[in-house]
Amino acid sequence: MFRDASSCNTYNYGDALYWDSRYIQEAGGAFDWYQRYSSLRPFVRHYLPTYSRVLMVGCGNALMSEEMVKDGYEDITNIDISSVAIDMMRRKYEFVPQLKYMQMDVRDMSFFPDESFYSVVDKGTLDSLMCGTDAPLSATQMLGEVNRLLKPGGIYMLITYGDPTARMPHLNRPAYGWNIFLYNLPRPDFKRPGGGSSTKSYMEPIPITEKGTLPADYVLEDPDSHFIYVCKKMDDTGLSSIPTYRLASEIL
């Protein structure tokens, strides 16, 4: 009732001890959740200027920030709850001035002043909290901090397994005032029936119903695909036209 129970296993993905243990076992390897930068690049380049200050939350040992720097991004601050991951990444990128690494809990980023970043990128971190204890509270704390850190007009880009039924009630709270665009990407290893190529344009936003769900006639090409929510922080003049969605108990 209070967690993403259907997508979680017995691990507490919101616990620093779990992640410290995992990164010790991986011993300096690299792992990117869900999608590699090559798949996400069209969305990142479309919404995030290369000169903008970027916050990568839950960076882990992923290669995405490195690949963004190779693609021209100039200032990426990476945070993670795991001190083990941060220590490894600091050593790895010691001579890459565009990348900074800090141990931090996304539920309390008070180290940073308000409106410190133009963009916040989240590839699986909100999902991890939704698998932890006190999931609704943790999600609210994290998203409140993300909103505080975004400049007006800034972008929170969430890559997640959560469909709009599970994620829109958390993202579209009136306190945030975000204008949200939704996209869908098949898994990198997804095989289409018959081996044909897709006719869909993944860069075309998916309309969201007034109830905050996918349209009834929308068919997911890959039933286990990933969703990209591009949340733009509005100024006060744009808030009145944004709909809100009730947070039903079964998706808290």
TrEMBL record:
Classification via Pfam families: Methyltransf_11
Keywords associated with the record: Methyltransferase, Transferase
Domain Methyltransferase type, first and last residues per copy: 55-157
Example of a GO biological process term: methylation
GO molecular function, one term: S-adenosylmethionine-dependent methyltransferase activity
Stored InterPro entries: Lys/N-term_MeTrsfase_sf (IPR051419), Methyltransf_11 (IPR013216), SAM-dependent_MTases_sf (IPR029063)
Nucleotidyltransferase recorded as keyword: no
Bilayer-spanning residue ranges: none
Matching CDD domains: AdoMet_MTases
Keyword Transferase on entry: yes
Similarity section: Belongs to the methyltransferase superfamily.
Protein name (Swiss-Prot/TrEMBL): Protein transport protein SEC31 isoform 1
Source taxonomy: Eukaryota, Viridiplantae, Streptophyta, Embryophyta, Tracheophyta
